[in-house]
Amino acid sequence: MTRGGCAQTVWVGLAAVVGVMASAAADAAVFPGAGSNKSTGLRSALYMKVRDVDDAPLTIDERQTIESVEEKTRRFYAASSGGQFDIRFDQVVDVALQLNADGTRPNQWFAKSEDYVRDTYGIEPEDFHLNLFDVNRTTADPNQGWSGIAILPGNNIAVQANVANSWGQIVVDHELGHRIGTPHSGAYRAVNNANYTPYVWDADQNEYAVYNSTAHGLQPTTFGMQLDSYGNPFSVMGNISHDQFSVKTKHDKFGWLTDQQVPDLADLADGTYRIYAHDELEVVYDEANDAYGVESTYAADKLYGLQYSRGGEQFNPDRRRFEPSTQNLTLEYRSGRDGVQFYLGGAILDLDLEGGTNRSGREKELEVGQTLSDLDIGVSTFWTSADGQDFLSFNPPAPTDPFELSSVWREFSVLGTAADEVGSYIEVAVSSVTAGILGDLNGDTLLDQFDLILFRDNWLNDLSGLDRLSRRSLGDLDGDGRVDSDDWSLLRGAFATQGVSVVGGAVVPEPTAAMLLLLGAVVGSARRTLRDSTALDSSTSPGHP
C-alpha cells in the first residue's frame, strides 16, 4: 500500500499530548507519536490473507476491501483514543497453505503462516505490533465457536468473519482491542430462563424470592443474575455494536483518559458535575505522513466520567457465604443519550426497566429527571456466567443489611443535557447521605416521639417507588418497600439498643413527670390511629405492646 512522504507534521508523543491538552491551544490537531505502551503510538500491522494453495491468490477486490477495513479501523481508534493511537496495515500479503481435505486449517497454522511470510516475502512477523490472520477463505473448525480470536500474550489475532460486512469490521476492531489490552465489556442481565434465575431478598418472609420486575421494581443486581461477558451494547468489546470503548476501559486499560478527566468521588466534594460525551471527537487525516488523529483531543480540564469505590459483599459459592468486597463503579455519558450509564466493574448496569432483558436493548441509563441512591444498586451481590448455576442451590444465608456495611452513601440526580464549545454533556448532582441511627426517621440524631409519629403516618404505605434511603427515612427499615410489622419490630429494637424504651407506644428516655404527660398525649394519638387502622398480632403492633 502506498504510504506518505516527507515529514511535515509535528509529531505528538505521549508527553507532548499532555502538554497540548493542558495548553490554551487545545483545539490543535493531535496525532500519535512513537507511543509509550501497546495502546498508544503510530503502529504497524501485517495483514495475512490465508487460503488453500490451490485457490486463487489475493484479488484486487479483496485488497480494496482490506484498504476499506484499514481506514475504518484507523478512524475508529483515532476517535476513541483522542489521537493517541493509530495502526497502519503496512503489509498486506497472500498466504497459501495446504489446507485439510475439508478446507479446515492444518495444525500449527499460525506458525506455518508466519513461516510462509518469512520464506516468501522476507518479512518478519514479529516486527509488527499486530499480525492479523484473515481466515475467511478457510473452513471453520468443527465447534470452533469464534468469529475472531486474539492470542495473548502476543501480537496475533485471527478473523473468520467476512471483513467486507459490518460484522467482520466489528470483529477486527474487537480483537485489536484485546491486543492492546482490554477484556470483553459485559452487562448484568436479570434474565429468567433455563440457565439463569434472578432472586431478591424478601425481608418479610425471611427468604429469597424469584425476581419479578412488576412486584419488586428496579433491582440492578439481583442474586444469581447473568453476567453476560459480551453483553454491553454500547461497546465494540461487547460484540453487539461498533460503539467506542467505555470510559473505564479508556482510563484504566488504555490510559487515553487521565485521573483528572475521570476523577474519584472520594477526592471531590458534593456538588453538580458536568460529564462530557467521550465519543464525539472529530477525526482528521495527515496525508503527508499517513496518520490519523483528531481535530482536538479530550479537554484536560473537563470531566468524561466519575468513579468511586464502596464497601460491599460478594457471595462465595465455594464457601457458601458472603464475604467483604470492594466494588468499583464508573459513570459515563455518550453522545445523544438521555441519561448516565453506570458500570460496576467492567460491566454495565441496567437502570431502566423500559429496556427489558433484551441483549441488544439500549435503555440502560439513569435518565434526566431521575434520582438514584447508591443503595439501589445492591451492595450484596452474586452473579454468574455459568449456565445452570442456581443461587439457591448453594443454600445462601441472608445478605447483610447494607446499613451495616456503610453509614454513608451517595445519591445521584440527573439534571439535564446541553452542549457547549467542547461538546455535549450531562449534569449530575452528587450528594453524600448519612444513614444515621436506625430508627431516627427525621434525621435529628434523636430517637423520640417525632420518629414514632413519622412512622405512624406511613403505616402500611407502599414506598417501593422511592429509593432505599428515602424509604428508610419514612419507616421502611427492612427495605422491602412497605412500612409494616417487621419494621415496627426493628424500630422497637433500635430504641432499646439506644437505651430508650417504648412503653405502651410511648417513648420514655429517663422521663420526668411532665415529659411523660407530653409523650403520652402525643403517642397516645398515634396509638389510637394505629389501633383503628389495622389488626396486627398483639405482640408486634405499635398499638398493642
Description:
This protein has 11 helices and 24 strands. The chain has 545 residues and is an alpha/beta fold. Among the domains are: 31-181, Collagenase (Catalytic Domain), CATH 3.40.390.10; 449-533, no CATH class. Helix 8 (449-457) packs parallel to helix 11 (513-533). It is elongated, with a radius of gyration of 30 Å.
Q: How does the SSE layout of this entry go?
A:
Layout: H1 14-22, E1 41-52, H2 60-81, E2 85-97, H3 109-121, E3 130-134, E4 148-151, E5 156-159, H4 166-179, E6 186-189, E7 199-202, E8 207-210, H5 213-216, E9 225-228, H6 247-253, E10 271-276, E11 283-286, E12 291-294, E13 306-316, E14 321-332, E15 339-344, E16 347-348, E17 366-367, E18 371-373, E19 380-381, E20 383-384, H7 402-405, E21 408-419, E22 424-434, H8 449-457, H9 468-473, H10 485-497, E23 501-503, E24 506-508, H11 513-533
Parallel strand pairs: 1-2, 1-3, 3-5, 6-16, 9-20, 13-19
Antiparallel strand pairs: 4-5, 6-9, 7-8, 10-22, 11-12, 13-14, 14-15, 15-16, 15-17, 18-21, 21-22, 23-24
